[in-house]
Amino acid sequence: MTTTFVQNQAFFKYLTAFLTGQLLLPDDAAYERVRHLWNRKVKTQPAAIVRCLTVQDVIHTVRWTRAQGLPLSVRGGGHDFAGRALVENGVVIDLSQMRAVTIDPDARSAHVQGGATAGDLMEAAQEYGLATATGTVSSVGMAGFTLGGGYSPLIGAYGLGADNLLSAQVVTADGQLVTANAQEHADLLWGLRGGGGNFGAVVSLEYRLHPLTTVLSGLLLYPLEQAKTVLHRFNEFIATAPDELTIPSGFLQMPDGLPGLFLSPTYCGSLEAGEQAIAPLRTFGDLLVDRVQPVTYDALIHGQDALTPKGRHYYIQTRSLKGLQTETIKVLLEQGLPLPSPFSLIQVHNFHGAASRVGVSETAFALRQDHLMVEAIAAWDPQSPVEEQRHIEWAQNLSYALAPYAFKGGYINLLDEKEQERVPLAFGSNYEQLLDLKRTYDPDDVFRSTIGHFTS
Ligand SMILES: Cc1cc2nc3c(=O)[nH]c(=O)nc-3n(C[C@H](O)[C@H](O)[C@H](O)COP(=O)(O)OP(=O)(O)OC[C@H]3O[C@@H](n4cnc5c(N)ncnc54)[C@H](O)[C@@H]3O)c2cc1C
Fold first, then answer.
1. Which of 45, 80, 355, 439 is most buried by a 10 A CB count?
2. Quick one: average pLDDT of 369-383?
3. How many whole angstroms from 330 Cα to the centroid of ligand 1?
4. Are 361 and 388 part of one and the same domain?
5. 78 lines ligand 1 (CB under 6 A)
6. What residues does 48 pair with on adjacent strands?
């Protein structure tokens, strides 16, 4: 849709007549507040936002929007850096009020609605001493996280978020409600496990839960002068680390303005075994900070919320590396530092264990070997365009410099709109099957989480 269409109540009369939820148009007082995503840098102006309350609202909105020939998008937790939850001049199916969670403690499973966040799920699951693979921040939507794959501090023991997805209910492009599980529409479930939000609006997801309350987790901070040694030892260490131990790492700005190297281990087995497993990390260098301690998993994922507040401007570039060698450590230190702002950071996810043992063709998520996913996250308060450019270039330069050492594809959840050529490479040998799936469930390319990559 290239032209702006009539944005008045009369145009939307038939849509609102059958809605339980609320329709917001640009003139409505609440529109601007609801339109704002986590990343305030996103400026997309939808023609309408439908705040769905029921599955019927979603079905009706999909059918109506398609009948009008308008573009649509789905908003879950609203945490996509690139802002793909919104569509310019189109209709947004906003699921952020559909966040109910139901736990079945006997089956060790959870049903969550399509707008539920990691925090919603964990708050409910921890009452039963259960947990699943979530991201590191509580406000991230479970649907967006899972559909793209889902790197977790629990990945070594439980796999990706997508590996824990047991079934889903999806409103497809023709407005039908479809259940995807091992028996019905198993092809669709395969695609939802890492293939992105390209096949419909996912109104509910069922997850496998694992017995877990307390983990051993926290921050180890080393001085920058020791970064080379620590990273070499870290690289050696993770090759044989137990599944229970997953170690995100990276660089952050310390209160004195200098960058520091961090390792942020999470151990999800017994606390005694965890202390033993983590002990070698404490010998890698002269620790400036040691905050590793027992913590509930729910508290862990709330711990980083304050570091990534809603409302700043953010930009991300990512590269997935086989490991850290002398050259890549050099690039991280020389191109990555200094960080462009006190809020910016380099974060490296540690993919291993259970996630690496899933076969490449078992789910849509294809990069099934041990790797490190490097995120260059630029964050700044809204400033002049020149400042913005400086932050964007920092992330891009680091990404370009790492590219020769990286896998060709990447993590689709964190690719930028200008990185379309990396999407087929990310899916590798699964790409053709995803194209087939797209032809089956969304031949007109209505749902475009990875921006029209499945249209060939
Ligand atoms: C602070 C922060 C921390 C993060 N931490 C991690 C992490 O630890 N591990 C990790 O792997 N990733 C992480 N991410 C990335 C995150 O997983 C992705 O950005 C994810 O897409 C966010 O999902 P969302 O539902 O919040 O976002 P949204 O912006 O709402 O959606 C993202 C995309 O998914 C689609 N989508 C969302 N919900 C649905 C649905 N119900 N049905 C169909 N399509 C849907 C949207 O249309 C959009 O294209 C993090 C992101 C942020 C901002």
1. 355
2. 94
3. 31
4. yes
5. yes
6. 91
Identify the DSSP state of 170. E
Query: Does residue 456 belong to any structural domain of this protein?
Result: no
Q: Average of pLDDT values for 152-179?
A: 98
Distance in angstroms (rounded) separating the CA atoms of residues 117 and 100: 10
Domain count for the chain: 3
169 pLDDT higher than 70: yes
The verdict on 141 and 81 lying in the same domain is no
What is the pLDDT, as a whole number, of residue 1?
A: 41
The answer to whether 239 touches 370, Cβ cutoff 8 Å, is yes
- Cβ proximity of 148 and 412 under 8 Å: yes
SS3 387: helix
Task: Name the band, by pLDDT with cuts 50, 70 and 90, for residue 453.
Answer: low
Cα of 247 from ligand 1 centre, angstroms: 21
CA distance 353 to 312: 34
Q: What is the mean pLDDT of residues 60-65?
A: 98
- Tell whether 222 and 156 lie within a shared domain: no
pLDDT number for residue 2: 41
Is the shortest distance between the CB of 150 and ligand 1 below 6 Å? yes
Pocket of ligand 1 contains residue 117 by CB under 6 Å = no
Question: Which of the two residues, 385 and 337, has the higher pLDDT score?
Answer: 337
Question: Does ligand 1 come within 6 angstroms of the Cβ of 364?
Answer: no
- CA 42 to CA 302: how far, in whole Å? 24
Domain co-membership, 200 together with 229: no
Q: Are 184 and 241 found together in one domain?
A: no
Q: Do residues 208 and 223 share a domain? A: no
Q: Which atom of ligand 1 is nearest to the CA of 117?
A: 26
Q: Is the CB of 449 under 6 A from ligand 1?
A: yes
In terms of domains, do 235 and 370 share one?
yes
Mean pLDDT of all residues in 244-262:
96
- Helical H runs in 215-294? 227-238, 271-278
CA 418 to chain centroid, in Å, comes to 18
Return the best residue to mutate from 55, 75, 117 for the ligand 1 pocket (most ligand atoms within 8 A of CB): 75
Mean pLDDT across the chain: 95
Pairing of strands 48-51, 91-94: parallel
For residues 225 and 180, membership in a common domain is answered with: no
**Nearest-atom index, ligand 1, CA of 205:** 41
CA angle 435, 438, 444 (to 5 degrees): 120
Query: 326 and 235 in contact (C-beta within 8 Å)?
Result: no
Q: Is the CB of 95 under 6 A from ligand 1?
A: yes
State residue 455's pLDDT score.
55
* pLDDT band, residue 452 (cuts 50/70/90): low
Domain extent, residue 184, equals 101-212+431-441
